[in-house]
Amino acid sequence: MGLVKRVKTARGRKISSTRWLERQLNDPYVQRAKAENYRSRAAYKLVELDERFGLLKGVGAVVDLGIAPGGWSQVVRRTTPKARIVGIDLLPTDPIEGVTILEMDFMDEAAPQRLKDALGGPADLVLSDMAANTVGHQQTDHLRTMGLVEAGLDFAVEVLKPGGAYVAKVLAGGADNQLVAAMKRHFTTVKHAKPPASRKGSSEWYVVAQGFKGERPYADPTPNTTHPE
User: How far is CA 95 from CA 70, 88, 89, in A?
Assistant: First the structure.
């Protein structure tokens, strides 16, 4: 086992900040991300979800909601280099070769159409690693997060090809019953997962909906290349 790195509490630095820095220095996913040139350890959450669910198999078009800093789109690019990828985030995101990035709030009413225009056709996969700003009140934080998941679902239903998939971050306890029921109306399978790269102390989980049942929203001459589980 490697030595655990300790960080001295510097003047002006909060204890919580020292603990965060110490955790970063000793996190194998952080070290791996640096070695493999991923922008964040979060990239491995998608890698592990893909290993379990086969999300990236044969995909030709992907939407990345909450793209910053770009780790998930990097994974998609490396796994399926020819896929069209469009991402959106309120935060600035450094360019990624082959990825169209929109710097705007996904909850802006103009955002869905901007994403559709940039994508230029239906999607095989909609990814959402969006997170609402937490206020420390569990019920409020849950409602804000579920609002993002629901908005992402509405968008996914509009853009996905039949057989497509939607993956979204949720908090501990997963998506609520009403939202899960809505997903089951649109997808053949809906499961919750916590990839190993998600820290044990974190409240985040992911909901994975596969096998989109809907009609094709675009007139798209290309065959569906998604293989639902």
Answer: 9, 12, 12
